[in-house]
Amino acid sequence: MDPISLFLLIVAGILVMGTLGEVIFVRTKVPDVLWLVLIGVLLGPVFHLVSRDFVWGLAPFFSALALVVIMFEGGLGLKLGELLSGAPRGFALAVLGVLFSVAAVVAVSEGLAFLGFLPGWSLPNSVLLGSIVGGTSSIIIMPLGKTAKLREEVANLLSIESAVNDTLCVVLVIAVIQFILEPGSGLDTVVKNIAAQFSVGGFLGIVAGLLWLWLLRFLQGTAYSYTLTFAVMMFLYVISNAVNGSAAITVLLFGVVLGNGAAISRALRFPEVIAFKQDARGFHEQLSFFIKTFFFVFIGLLMSLETGTFLIGLAVSAAVLLVRPLAVWLSAAGGKFSSQEKKLMTIAMPRGFAAAVLAVMPSTYGIPGSEQYTGIAFSVILITILVFTIGFRFFCAPGSGNGSAGKGPPGKKVLEESKPMERPPREAVHLEAGPEPREVEGIREQDY
Predict the structure, then answer these.
(1) Residue 244 DSSP one-character state
(2) Phi–psi pair at 416, nearest 5 degrees
(3) Termini Cα distance of the chain
(4) Cα separation, 15 vs 110, whole angstroms
(5) Would you list the domain boundaries of the chain?
(6) What is the mean pLDDT of residues 54-62?
(7) How far apart are CA 197 and CA 63, in angstroms?
(8) Helix or strand or coil: residue 70?
(9) Distance between CA atoms of 258 and 174, rounded to whole angstroms?
(10) pTM of this prediction?
(11) Proportion of the chain in helix, strand, coil states, percent, rounded to 5
(12) Cα separation, 375 vs 389, whole angstroms
């Protein structure tokens, strides 16, 4: 078969499996990520139909695009009030989760080094490994709340945690590398860098979102408003990185502003009430599905099947899983979370592309022992995805375990029955595509 036909056949097969994976997820509550990662493993490490070096060449570009698409979609789905109320817990879970994970990985790595399984490994190497695999994957977690119909408080907490994690881990990895190369660097530098990235990224996302919300009034009636919005997202990603901000937070908050456009435009007394059109949301969801499908296959393509490295990754994953319940318990203290929801938050710890990209950085800087990071990190990614997949199926399936699965606080459910979505009142948010503008509470309402 000629290369072009093979390429088209593989792409078509991946899209079909992605669609079937969504159907299987709805029926069995087994996340589609499992099947897509396995397809990647078969195409790459097993049958060598796709070159790993070729995939690595595309990885930085694809991961940036995936981050933009997924974070924006996550922001669109976050209601402003729930975001503000859930931010403290989400941030606490992110910080505690990363710190506990780093500590656990350091303990296991030092033990393995003492036993001779990681020759030449030192304490800074262990801290660096913990920073690489310390955070959950926003690209896996963000779509979870919508697809699985989790209770909004739980979905928002996990989404905020995963968004914060990306930035925390990037800053930590850079700080540890800097410490290894220049031992004089202190903890105060790390804290300042984290605060600066969140502040700059958040400010840029909110300001850009408000400005774009105002400008969209002049794009009414055009067919390319979403195309321009997508271009603005990519501009924001580049600008945020250029000014040392968190690109993930920037795009997330840009999406939050547009997703809550009706409420914000009313509060700011815009001439028209601007709401993100339903057809634009639908197009973005299709694009997000395409990106997510190939992202998970990418993860599988980059896996290493070396036995020794996999066993080390297994030990590291076990350590991360053991400390996760403590982070969840502390961050959820005082909240109205059922025991089943806490178990679900405990296993919602899959590592993803951020860990894969960060694992390559030590070799770029010539850090001793850097050849170990990639293999261990990819093993941890695969194992944590498997744990998440199995645990999600168990804790979300009605009637599983102790019979409380699917139950949240009294009167609420973690996993709701599938039913037609109730349309919000037209006075609150106008989402239909193409109607004539009309008067709402004395204000002219207009989609873009």
Answers:
(1) T
(2) -90, 160
(3) 46
(4) 43
(5) 10-401
(6) 76
(7) 19
(8) helix
(9) 32
(10) 0.71
(11) 70, 5, 25
(12) 21
d(CA 106, CA 172): 14
At 427 the pLDDT is: 41
Report pLDDT for 342: 92
**Measured between alpha carbons, how far is 274 from 279 in angstroms, rounded to an integer?**
14
Sequence-separated (6 or more) residues with CB below 8 Å from residue 16: none
Amino acid identity of residue 173, one-letter, is: V
Which H/E stretch holds residue 443? strand 443-447
Answer yes or no: is pLDDT of 221 > 70: no
SS3 state at 413? strand
* Model pLDDT for residues 202-220, shown as the tens digit of each residue: 999 999 999 998 888 777 6
H or E stretch covering 59: helix 52-76
Ramachandran sector of residue 401 (left: φ over 0; alpha: ψ -120 to 50; beta: rest) = left
Torsion (CA) 186, 187, 189, 193 in degrees, nearest 10: 150
d(CA 161, CA 134) in angstroms, rounded, equals 12
Task: Give residue for tokens 């203290």.
Answer: 333
What pLDDT is attached to residue 232?
Answer: 93
Strand partners, 419: none
Q: Considering only the top CATH level, what class is 10-401? A: mainly alpha
Separation of alpha carbons 323 and 390, rounded Å: 19
Q: Which residue has the tokens 């779509």?
A: 143
Res 438: pLDDT: 43
